[in-house]
Specification:
alpha/beta, Rossmann fold, 2 domains, six-stranded mixed β-sheet, three-stranded antiparallel β-sheet, binds adenosine-5'-triphosphate, ATP hydrolysis activity, ATP-binding, ABC transporter ATP-binding protein, ATP binding
Length: 223
């Protein structure tokens, strides 16, 4: 089943064309890694897929049963941030008339807390969590509404190796249960280890295919 189909997409900021005739698809259960140097349009692609930018040309076909979860690139959550990890996850419950969570919503929040290894720290202020714990909280929040496509924009960028693997192992577990993943990264090793397919954006052209065909640059490349 196709969860997103992008065909001949062109996106521009005014006269500055950033994405030029891009086509690719994401299928159910894919772990698509998106690689490419700074400024080639990776975040612009995500913003277009989320509907925030109107394509100049081409189409982004998102079937009705595709629900997207998104973990954006940068957040500035400092020590003063007042919400607990659990409350932060619960922020992504859909708008409701009564101000408190229903039992079903609470159960769902607790499930996400469990499945993202946050049980022991659920009541801790998010601002005091480590980088890896924060990323797991962002993941839990994004997964709360049960999306079938998860977009991660550089989620491992600020993490040490152990935390990177922990986070991506977790994401892989969800992927193996049918979640499709689109993971934007500058880390070619992680791309090769976790991806099933790739989209390589060079700024001039695009390549896509199974992960074993990823054209890994020589050392000193765009890593
Ligand atoms: N709102 C905007 N208005 C005008 N130009 C923009 C805007 N957002 C991004 N750009 C430009 O579009 C190009 C692509 O930016 P984008 O953030 O999509 O790249 P990226 O591949 O995600 O980069 P990075 O890896 O550094 O996050 C850049 O030249 C950037 O300066």
């Amino acid at each position: 089943m196709t969860v997103v189909s992008v065909d001949d997409l062109t996106v521009a900021y005014g006269s500055h064309t950033v994405i030029d005739h891009l086509s690719f698809t994401i299928n159910e259960g894919d772990f698509l890694v998106v690689v490419g140097e700074n400024g080639v349009g990776k975040t612009t692609l995500v913003r277009s897929m989320l509907g925030f930018l109107k394509p100049k040309k081409g189409t982004i076909d998102i079937p009705q049963n595709t629900k997207i979860g998104y973990v954006p690139q940068f957040r500035n959550i400092d020590e003063e941030y007042p919400l607990s990890i659990k409350d932060f996850v619960a922020l992504n419950t859909k708008p409701r008339i009564i101000p408190w969570l229903t039992k079903k919503e609470r159960d769902r929040v607790n499930r996400m807390i469990r499945e993202n290894n946050l049980v022991n720290i659920a009541e801790r202020p998010l601002g005091l969590a480590s980088g890896g714990e924060k990323q797991r909280a962002y993941l839990a929040q994004a997964l709360l509404p049960d999306p079938n496509l998860l977009i991660l924009d550089e989620s491992t960028a600020s993490l040490d190796n152990e935390m990177k693997y922990e986070l991506l192992d977790l994401v892989t577990r969800f992927q193996q249960n049918g979640l499709s993943v689109m993971f934007i990264t500058h880390d070619w090793d992680l791309a090769q280890q976790y991806g099933t397919r790739f989209l390589y954006m060079t700024g001039k052209s695009y390549e896509t295919g199974p992960i074993n065909e990823l054209p890994v640059p020589a050392k000193g490349g765009t890593k």
